[in-house]
Every structure is written in structure tokens, then in C-alpha cells.
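Our collaborator T.R. sent over the components below with a one-line note: 'Predict the complex.' Nothing else. No constraints on interfaces, no templates requested, no preferences about which chain binds where. So this is a plain run: every listed entity goes in together, and whatever single assembly comes back becomes the starting point for the next discussion.
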Amino acid sequence: MEDKTLNTKNKEHCDDVWEPKIIAFLCNWCSYAGADLAGTSRLQYPSNIRIIRVPCSGRINPLYIIRALVDGADAVMVSGCHPGDCHYLSGNMYARRRFAVLKKLLTIAGIEPDRVQFTWVSASEGSRFAAVVKEVVEKAKKLGPMYADVHKLST
Amino acid sequence: MVFEKQFELLKETCKELLEQNKVDLILGFTTDENSSSAIPFFIRTPEDLEKLRWDDYCVPNLAKYLLENKKKVAIVAKPCDSRAIAMYIVEGQLDRKDVFIIGMECAGMKSKDSTPAPWCLECDVRIPPVYDILIRGEGIEKTPEITSTASNTAAIAAKEAAAVAAATGDTGTINNAETIEDTADTETMADTADTAVAANMAQSFVEIEKSNNDSSNDLSSKNKLSRFMNEINRCILCFSCRQACYGCYCGTCFIEKGIPNWQPSDVDSGKKMMFHLGRAMHLAGRCVECGACERVCPSGVNIRYLIRELTDFCEDLYGYRAGLNLDEEPVLTSFRQNDKEVGFLGGEDDV
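Returned assembly:
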């Protein structure tokens, strides 16, 4: 009984102030360091993102992003080094094509374009990182929960 | 009839290949005894040629059988098969010298119910881009060298045909050249040799184009999602589309892997979404438009529309179309310094 009450209470609470859950894939060399800089510079940004550190934006398997969305992440953000600055020389160049195609695919399948965000953040751009996160979170909040539509449509 | 003429030439070619021991095996089509549909056929002796079949129901893509064979194999290749073979060669799955490609000019195949196959209506490649011997509706053309054409196949094909016509002084071939030049154009398609089929196809083509313009271009995300969910709700996860697809040749498919496990706990819609989106992503820029996925689906799921739009996207953005050129790297394994940043945060271009 107690558990149930707790759950309902939690649920209600969640409904009141729904916050999007956002998965952020950051490359180790630029964006993760950029996020670090944002932190050490005491810049404020929304706490909705869950950061996953990857070696390179080229290391991000598109399936990671699809799986995150399918499992209910409200948005996915991916950030790597600026083109030309890749630690592994060309990882982000491959990623650039891959992401464009992936975003197109998800858009055709009916996932709103704003749920998948790609950008470049370098290690010195702490303030840019904070601004990007703010923008991503704002857009995700406007869209609402990921599965609101999917559950209605699946049998 | 185009197919009968081609069939005779095909038989002759196969006989020659087998008698001269140029190949150990020929992949072709035969008639299934039970369902009378065209099925793949492994030809080993000249006697087998009795059962050979070539008509407008020979839809299956035979290219995938090449991967299982270690012998010298000849294959009866429609443009889509030929493009699939080209992709195998580009992707390092197959050696060009291990396969002898009998290219067949193809005006589009038919579904079981005698209507033009929907994927053939959308296809504008009528001449196989890679072949050793090309059997056209009008005659035979031999190329001892490895052939590959640039991305504008239709124009190149027309040029080739015109060259042949000039060489032989045959007016029939000139007609053919004109028709090929305009295969994408619905009006002139009615002029092809097989008038009835072509007219029928042209009409359906116009209808399809119309419905495309009406509905699928400016759909909101919600409509797009409901279309996608409508399709995958019918999916029973039998993976037939994957088995039939030329491009799905991985030893273990990602959806069946234990580590990492890509199957979401929500088996119903989640796993279907994961499978179809993942497969579409794997085929992005690699699809040769053979329609196998749609043809084999027991519940009539059309997931091809997703991949089809990705194919167009890759062509528009990166100028790449799968299987037309043996020298071109696949779109997602290559890059250019000045690639457009489409769909990026704060970018100018949207997907």
C-alpha cells in the first residue's frame, strides 16, 4: 500500500513539473572538456542532461541514439570537436555525414527534428556549451515527453 | 516481345559459358513447380538450361547467393542485381574477377498479381551499370573490360545505345536509345517495345507521383509518426526483409546480438522501432532499390519508403547513388572537407 501511494505521489509530482531527460554524447577531447570548463567557470546550465563520454564523435554508433530515443529519452544531444579539430583527424568528418543522414531518417519516421541535436563545442567554449544545453533543453521542453504519441499509436 | 528475344540470347550465352567451362555455376531463374512463381535457380549443366526462365516475373535479387559461393559464378543480373554486385565489390565482399555478370536490360518487373512492381515504377536504371555481357531487348553487347558508368546512368545508357545504333546502322536501336533517355519521363515510356506494360506502368507512375505530392511531402511529425507506426504495427519481426536484402550480410545482425544487447525491454513497439530504424540506418545510401524487403514481407509492411527517402537525401546532398560506380566510396564511409552541415544546431540547412 505504502509503495503504491508513494508511486502515485511521485507520478503526480512528476506530472506537475515534468522535466525532459536528455542524453548527451560528448567527445572526450573537445566537448567533454568544454563541459568541464563550463563547470569550473561556474556557468549555470539546466541539469536535464546526462552526459556519456565517448572517445570521438565518430565513435558514436547511430544505434546509440536510436536506442536512447526508443527507450524514452526525451532528446539526444551529440557534440564533438569542430571539423578540422578532431583528435583523430577525421572522426568528426565521418560523423557529420552520419548525423545528417540519421537526423533525416528520424525525421521521416516522425521523431521531431528538435529531439536530436548535433553541434560542435571545443574545449575552450565553456560558455558555448552552457548556451547549447540551454537551447536543447528549451526545445525539448516545448516538445513534451517523447512517448506521448508513440504509446497512443502502437497497438 | 522484348523478353522472348532476350531469353533466346540468354540461353545461348549460358550454353556457351557452360560448354566452354568458363564458369562452374550460373545463377538464374526457374519456375517453382508449386506456385509457378519465378525462383532462383542454380545451373550446373547445359541440360539444366531447359528449366531456365526469363520473363517479367523474375523479381528476386540473386546477388546475395554470390556471397555463399567460392566458385567462379555467372549471374543473370537485372540492373538492381548488378548494382548489388557492384556494392559487394566496392565493399570488399566480392572479387570482380570471380563473377561473370550477364547484364539484362530491364523495363521493370511485375508483381505476382500482374501489376507492375511498385519499386520498379520508381526505378530509372534500365541498363545494369556493371556487366561482362549485356543482353538488351534488341541484341547482345559484349564488353571484355570491366565496365562502370558514372552516376547518370540513363544518359550514359542512351549514349551507348546510340553508339551501337551508329555502328550497326540499325534504326530499331535508335528508337531504343531515345526511349532509354527518357525512362524517367512517363510520357515517352509508353513508346517502349512492350507498349501495353509500359503504358500501364506510366499511368501508375503518374498516380504514385500524384499521391506523393499530395501526402508525403509536407507531413507534420505526427502524421509521419503515425505512418511509421502504422507500418511497423503490422510487423511480426520475422526478419524476412533482412534475409532477402542484399545489404544485410552481417554474420550476426545487431538486433540478435547479446553484447551489446540492442533489444529494448519493450518488445512490442520498441523492438520493432529499433530494428527498422537501425536497419534503415545501416542501408542508408546503400539501397539498390530492388524491393526485396517489400516483396517478401508476409504482412505487407512497406519499410522501403524510409530507405527510399534516405537514398534521395544522399543523392541530393552528397551526389552518391549506390552501385552505379565501382570507383566511388560508399557515402557513409567517406567524407569531403566541405560537406554541408545539414540538421546541425544553429545551422542554416534543415533536414
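Summary for T.R.: The CA atoms of residues 343 and 350 of chain B lie 5 Å apart.
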